[in-house]
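Hey, sorry to bother you again with one of my protein questions. I've been staring at a protein lately and its backbone has me curious. I owe you a coffee for this, so here goes:
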Amino acid sequence: MLNRPITQLGLLLLAIVLIYLPTLGYGHLPTWDDTNFVVWRPEILDWWGSTWTERLLNPNIGYPIPIPTALYAALRAIFGEHGYYGILHGLHVGFHLINTALVFALVRALRSALSREEADLRPALPILIAAVWALHPVLVESVAWLTNTKNLLSNMAILAALNLQFRLPKFGLLKALPFLVLLYVLAIGSRPDGAILPFILGFAALLTQPQITSTLKKWFAALCALGAVSLPYVYWASSTHAGVAERKAPMMGGVSEVLFRIGRALEFSALNIAFPVELHPSYFYHGDETLVRGLPGLFIGVLLVGGFALLWRKNQAWSRFAAFGLGLGLASYVPYSNLVFLPRLAADTYLYMPTLGVMIFLGGALSMPRIGRRLVPIMAGLVLVYTLLSANQVRRWENAVTLWEPVIEFEPTLDRSYRHIAFHHLGNQDWKAALDVVERGLPHFRRERDIPWYVLVIYRETKGPLAAAEIGMEARLENDVVAAELHKAFVETLLIGKIPPPPDPALKAVIRESMEFYLTREDWLQNPSARPAVEAYLPSTQP
């Protein structure tokens, strides 16, 4: 009975549910991503009161993800501000289950398309590849993090389209084309990188089809039409959003810096897929940004491209199978990794589809003459190891503390770790724990010239208004960018503590600037006593 494909897939799906079941009780993470993607965007808070620009282009996050945005808005309207997080986590698990079933079906179709004889490619490939991929711990970030609805849906569209293409002779061109268009809309509507869909389909068809039929020629024409839409869409989607430009600016260094970052990104990504033991939400380089430091990763890239070319030319069932995996991994990694847009060098969420490419490549190796049989028990062992590692990784995504404390051990100088943990404790009003983490993080905040506003609130609750005012003045003077919330926390600290301005005219001017900014914010003046208190304090700030 265990030899039946439906039974194998059912057991795999059950294992996935058991591993990810804890996420149904998780909320959102107080990070930039969850806060801006899932919680506070105007088009999520008030869909019908938002403009079509906000609904479709999502200017508040830097690039358009209209389909996840509509989903967030609908769930929030139905289940309430906090109730929908658990529902969304459940949907993420459901999306991953669907994707796993699509991978299982895709590998079966790929095996059927490439096998000249039944013995060419091993019968166990579909369940082995689907299991090693679906249970791989590097995928946990995509499933357990609410922000990544866009990745799950976009990759779902690509997997479904690949399955559709392999079944084109049975399905029929006229029936397939409407589904192709719908899947394309799902791919690019979930994130702009989904525009890669027609190019992946074209590559897959060229690699796996023994002959180009008239039906396939018409299919290629449809793919070319979608590709003609993809290229200008991606350019437009990125160029019209200030958020992308702002994040891109720090990365646009010289050629050596770009190559360094590409190399380090490839190195991180390869290590995380091969040895998924030390996984974190952010990875940063260590040491100097020199081209030499990026050479190992660049060498990995050359090996992958060269290996793909050699496997393609070999023209055997196992080599074409492996080449399909490498091609899929490379084609999906380049757009999804955002190498020139984000300051960090790698993120596990980029590896959802590339990891599948690696596993399909290994599946081809399993069918190699002589040595393939020896790899089967290794793959089976990986399923067990990855299951245990994924279960542990899922628990880390419960909240900011469980997620970011290990990052501090991995990279103690990474200031964002302290920020996320402090903000979590602030939300729970655990003042002692919050003070501990901000004092550990303060040297790193100072190094980055970015002391966050909530340090003032935490100091005010633990050390008193005077200490909070002192750190607030330091932040006002030293921060490269003064956030609106810093003005607010600084003014309220001075008013709560009834702290008079210092005699120095320059410091008085700093306080006066924050006070005047405070008076421009009607949302801060809802408290009837706020405006009179600020206006009464202002004269004392005159030189």
Remarks:
- The chain has two domains: 5-25+90-396, 401-541.
